[in-house]
Amino acid sequence: MKYFKLIKDIHLHTGLFISPFIIVFSISALILNHNFIDWQEDWQEWYFSVDDKVDKTVRFNLPAPDKKEIDFAKDIIKQINISGEIANVFRDSIRMYIPVTKPGYRISIKADLISGTAYIHSKQTNLWKKLNWLHKMPGPHNANIRGNWIFTKSWNYLVDFSVILLFLSSITGIILWYYLKNERNIGLIALFIGFLSVASLVIGLTI
Amino acid sequence: MEINKHKNGFRKWNQKIHIYLGLCLLFFIWLFGFSGLLLNHHWDFAKSWEKRKEISYNKTIQINSVREKNILVHEIMNKLNLKGSIYNLRFSDDSVLLNFIISKPGTRYDIQAHLNDGKIMIRKTKLDKWEIMRSLHKIRNPTSKEQGERYQAVPAIIWSLSIDVLSAGLIIICLGGWYLWLQVPGKRFYAGLISFTTGLFLCIYILFFLN
Hints:
The structure holds 2 protein chains of 2 kinds. Chain A is of the alpha+beta class.
């Protein structure tokens, strides 16, 4: 076949490039699906943990009050030299709670809007929680503010790119299998078993 | 001679496992790949919650006097002929009301049961096929914090198990793929090395050096 070598190369390179990502996602899927590790975050506890423990205080200049909440929070964390994805902020006239997350860290910030002082408490998380963070980011929640950190945005593009390469790798894999005449029959059975499993489970779950 | 024979045998079987496992898991891979994209993007065509259909209705049933959450919920579900996984199971402070959600991909029932008179208020929410896909991606076993508040339906338990099979299968496909690549001679091996190290470097950087 004219394009056989090209298809083989595409399958090889896409597969090799995405394989570390697939392993990251597979391991984190296993963690999320089971109780090996206590991965579930207590959001409220994290948001307000700075009320109980302060690691550092930093001064900041009050951003323009007409700014949107997320931009207001971004301005503060930039001044206090913290980077990360901002979750839902809580603000009243005297203070603002800014929960920040990134792989391996969760940071709780309380910005005193009267004195211009930021109280910071940060907690390091383990490798498994890092994997889970990567698995779930950017995700479906807080759609209007999600991706407010350049890394989260880049990770989103990288995940999209990996999924497209995964599709490409699987399609080229099917073509390569089709040309292996000896493997056609058993391959067809495997394909049929896979289809039947997905279809029956989806029907069983939805009816 | 003997070593070569074993090596060839292993390569042959490894290739077979790579092909068959890949084909068997193909539809799962496509489903989880596409639903992952749906979860990460908020495309207009897939805004299921805005397009949901809701119906509210009441029913009255005979309820057992035993005030044990687990028994009561299953009794109510059986009498109302509802199926699905149970979430957010909560009694009111005076134990007169029992609130819970029954959920299955594409359908959700918010239930409020008045235990004294057996009046059950049901709000049924129907969601479209895109939400079904998203739900399939998110089905998982309850965590330790959710014990007693969340119960998986049998099909959901089987689905969770199939997620484990898919994850383990994908790891095996990757490992098998690496072995097959190591057998590739000459230039193609080095070209593959570039693709592999690029992906690996990105993953290692993100996992260990992004602070």
